[in-house]
């Protein structure tokens, strides 16, 4: 196991109204790993992402970004949230503009991000002219233009049709393999999590915590053949069972199969 990029130790989050969003959550994510967080609404998946990104504060516990800073993180939200009055090119340039980089100095980075997400030729289009899938590509390009080392993604494909979602899943894996990011991906979709991930982390709600982890021990690149394989179905059944146990009896839902060995390996 490689060194950790992200380590959350005994992290708890309690909101001012008394809601316990997270309690004693432990999670270690390796450099270059693709980890999906899966669980019911309200289990704290998005809260974990926001804490890692520095967009929210934990009540107690510790976050370590080994060798990284939060400036090297990029966040892709569930909604593309594009500026409707700005072109594709201008939307992608926005993070660099906010950092004080001139349009001229940013031009090569913007062009590179556009090419990475296969939007070449659409630079001068406005959001109203784009499909849902294209809008999400712009959102991803806007994250990539900063050359991140860690990519945090909060259900980015949840609102898309299955065909578009499947295509973007494959494109994302190709980019991840090329760019060597560490990815933390939130989803409600078991099939998506299994297809994308090195490891699927199952969370339970009230309070939010990790109840099991499943290592997807299958090679990349992943293809449609993997989606129809017996191994894929077995992983999906295992995770579905873990989710069911987490919903009905979370205190006996399972154990952190990968996490224990990972913490031991980096101790």
Strands, helices and their partners?
Elements: E1 4-14, E2 20-30, E3 34-38, H1 45-53, E4 60-65, E5 73-76, H2 88-98, H3 103-116, H4 132-144, E6 150-154, H5 162-179, E7 182-187, H6 190-196, E8 199-204, E9 209-215, H7 224-227, H8 230-248, H9 257-266
Parallel strand pairs: 3-7, 3-8, 5-6, 6-7
Antiparallel strand pairs: 1-2, 1-4, 8-9
Helix pairs in contact: 2-3, 2-4, 3-4, 6-8
Model description:
There is one protein chain. The longest helix has 19 residues. The radius of gyration is 19 Å and the shape is globular. It is built from nine helices and nine strands. The chain has 267 residues and is α/β, with parallel strands linked by helices. α2 crosses α3, α2 runs parallel beside α4 and α6 packs across α8. It has a domain of 183 residues: Rossmann fold, CATH 3.40.50. A hairpin with a 4-residue loop joins β8 and β9.
Main sheet specs = 6 strands, mixed
Measured on Cα atoms, how large is the radius of gyration?
19 Å
Order of helix and strand elements from N to C terminus: EEEHEEHHHEHEHEEHHH
Give a count of the beta strands, DSSP E runs of length 2 or more: 9
Q: Report the span from N to C terminus.
A: 12 Å
Apparent shape: globular
Binned, the helix content reads 25-40%
Task: Summarize this entry quickly.
The chain has 267 residues and is an alpha/beta fold.
């Amino acid at each position: 196991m490689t060194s950790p990029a992200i380590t959350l130790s005994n992290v708890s989050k309690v909101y001012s109204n008394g809601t316990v969003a997270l309690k004693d959550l432990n999670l270690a994510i390796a450099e270059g790993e693709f980890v999906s967080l899966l669980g019911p609404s309200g289990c704290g998946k998005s809260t974990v992402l926001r804490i890692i990104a520095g967009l929210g504060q934990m009540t107690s516990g510790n976050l370590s970004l080994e060798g990284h800073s939060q400036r090297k993180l990029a966040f892709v939200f569930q909604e593309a949230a594009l500026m409707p009055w700005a072109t594709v090119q201008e939307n992608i340039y926005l993070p660099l503009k906010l950092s004080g980089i001139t349009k001229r100095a940013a031009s090569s980075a913007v062009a590179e991000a556009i090419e990475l997400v296969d939007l070449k030729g659409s630079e001068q289009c406005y959001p109203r002219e784009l499909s849902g899938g294209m809008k999400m590509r712009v959102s991803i390009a806007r994250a990539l233009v900063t050359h991140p080392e860690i990519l945090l993604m909060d259900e980015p494909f949840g609102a898309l049709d299955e065909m578009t979602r499947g295509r973007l899943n494959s494109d994302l894996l190709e980019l991840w393999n090329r760019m060597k990011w560490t990815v933390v991906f939130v989803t409600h979709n078991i099939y998506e999590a299994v297809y994308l991930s090195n490891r699927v982390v199952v969370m339970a709600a009230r309070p939010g915590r990790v109840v099991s982890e499943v290592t997807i021990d299958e090679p990349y690149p992943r293809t449609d053949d993997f989606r129809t394989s017996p191994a894929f179905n077995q992983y999906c059944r295992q995770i579905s069972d873990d989710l069911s146990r987490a919903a009905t009896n979370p205190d006996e839902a399972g154990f952190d199969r990968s996490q224990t060995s990972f913490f031991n390996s980096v101790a």
